[in-house]
Design goal:
Blueprint lengths: L2 E2 L1 H6 L8 H10 L4 E5 L6 H6 L4 E4 L3 H9 L11 E4 L6 H11 L7 E5 L16 E4 L5 H4 L6 E2 H4 L15 H10 L10 H22 L7 H13 L7 H7 L10 H13 L30 H7 L4 H5 L12 H20 L3 E6 L6 E8 L2 E7 L11 H10 L3 E8 L5 E2 L5 E4 L3 E2 L1
Parallel strand pairs: 2-5, 2-6, 3-4, 4-5, 7-14, 10-11, 11-13
Antiparallel strand pairs: 1-3, 8-9, 9-10, 12-13
């Protein structure tokens, strides 16, 4: 049942591209007995895990799953580290690893991967025994768009050091990266092959993943319409009621609230919805902040494909729709940058949220917080930001004072530099971990 020697075989494969999360995993496994890698299907969890294990149990294989279900003790037997792949297919496996940890398993004993949170979770959350690590689609740095010259970790240091660097990445390249997605297996595809893969991925969510997550979809077309409405709300804080109304489409039939809530629950458990939470500090000076999340799918390519957007329509200035001002390309560019920033922030042990006042008169796209200090980031679909583009960053600095470690505007421009007011201007392709 187990695949012995998996790590040696995997390490010899030249096709594996090291991910940013690899450094985090290597560090955690030197001192922790069990780590679970979580993220959407096809994001590269198994390939990443296989670089460091010696025994693998693949629970997406029915034969292996049946054997494991008959005797759970098998899952903790074999040369370590041991991988339990797609553990949510057999939720009892999580408890089995937890008990092995309680029994004194040494550091680096177990890796688990999961493409969903099970409907019926394990009897114990695993807190204090199994550390969860999120893996998102590949960042711009991991895709090799350019060599980063500005480190997010350095921006979080608060030293406000000079930033520099030039990139030849153009708007066309950013559009290409939005449409191609950060799923590793899609990186070599283009044209019809890429569209077919993305369509298949989305169809699999509706036709297979929901059922495997324990949710019956009686009207697949309604789920598809709601997902398209959510995609149209990318990078906005639109209410779920507005998204539900938009899902009615030309039919005029608005999905029931209970139906939409079930969709959201499952899509979140599948890691397909990846919204950015609102920043809600306790300081009185921010008592009027709003709490809605900023909407994002796991990858902006999924949003583009749901909306049937291609390079021509994006570059022609297709509207972002009813949920936010500007173009769809601007919304998807923000989503692409957000995806990368969240991975860089995770590597720096920081959390990402967004800021919006209740009246909507001030907002900051990304708040990266670590140890009480804040890095504020605005994403602007422009080459050179102006004073209007940075007004919310200056407003925030006036309120946070020394708590504001740094401020930055991420752009589509060619050069990284600091403005006269100290705000960093960074092309998206030049930002790295």
């Amino acid at each position: 049942m187990a695949q012995q020697g998996a790590a040696q075989t995997a390490r010899s494969r030249p096709s594996y591209q090291r991910r940013i999360v690899d450094d985090e995993l290597d560090e955690l496994l030197t001192g922790l007995p069990a780590v679970a890698i979580e993220g959407p299907r096809a994001v590269g969890k198994t390939a990443t895990a296989m670089q460091r294990v010696r025994t693998a149990y693949r629970l997406d294989d029915e034969a292996q799953r049946v054997i494991a279900q008959a005797d759970l003790t098998r899952l903790t037997e074999g040369d370590r580290p041991i991988l339990i792949d797609e553990w949510q297919r057999l939720p009892e496996s999580f408890d089995r690893v937890r008990r092995a940890v309680d029994a004194g398993a040494p550091p680096g004993s177990f890796l688990l991967t999961g493409s969903a949170s099970p409907k019926d979770p394990p009897t114990h959350s695993g807190a204090g025994r199994i550390v969860r690590v999120r893996l998102r689609p590949m960042t711009l740095a991991e895709r090799g768009a350019d060599t980063p010259t500005v480190s997010l970790r350095r921006l979080l240091s608060g030293d406000r050091a000079p930033v520099s660097g030039r990139t030849s990445v153009t708007l066309d390249r950013y559009v290409e990266e939005i449409l191609r997605s950060g799923f590793p297996g899609f990186q070599s595809l283009a044209g019809r092959l890429l569209r077919a893969q993305l369509d298949g991925y989305l169809a699999g969510i509706v036709d297979r993943d929901f059922e495997e997550a324990g949710q019956t979809v009686r009207r697949p077309q309604v789920l598809r319409r709601w997902m398209s409405a959510y995609a149209a709300a990318t990078s906005s804080v639109a209410s779920y009621e507005k998204i539900r109304d938009a899902a009615a489409g030309e039919t005029g039939a608005t999905p029931a609230k209970t139906t939409v809530q079930a969709y959201r629950d499952v899509l979140e458990r599948l890691f397909i919805l990846d919204s950015v939470p609102a920043w809600l500090p306790t300081a009185n000076r921010f008592a009027q902040l709003a709490s809605p999340p900023r909407h994002h799918l796991a990858d902006p390519a999924l949003a583009a494909r749901l909306l049937r957007a291609d390079a021509a329509t994006l570059l022609a200035g297709q509207s972002a729709g009813p949920f936010r001002e500007g173009t769809l390309l601007g919304a998807l560019f923000e989503s692409l940058v957000t995806q990368s920033v969240r991975t860089y922030a995770q590597a720096a042990e920081a959390q990402v949220s967004h800021l919006r006042t209740s009246r909507g008169d001030h907002e900051v796209d990304l708040i990266v917080e670590r140890d009480g200090g804040v890095l504020a980031i605005e994403v602007k679909f422009a080459q050179v930001p102006n004073d209007r583009d940075t007004r919310h960053l200056r407003w925030l600095e006036a309120r946070l004072g020394s708590r504001l470690l740094d401020s930055a505007v991420i752009t589509t421009g060619p050069a990284a530099y600091r403005r006269s007011d100290g705000i960093a201007v960074i092309p998206a392709a030049l930002l790295g971990p």
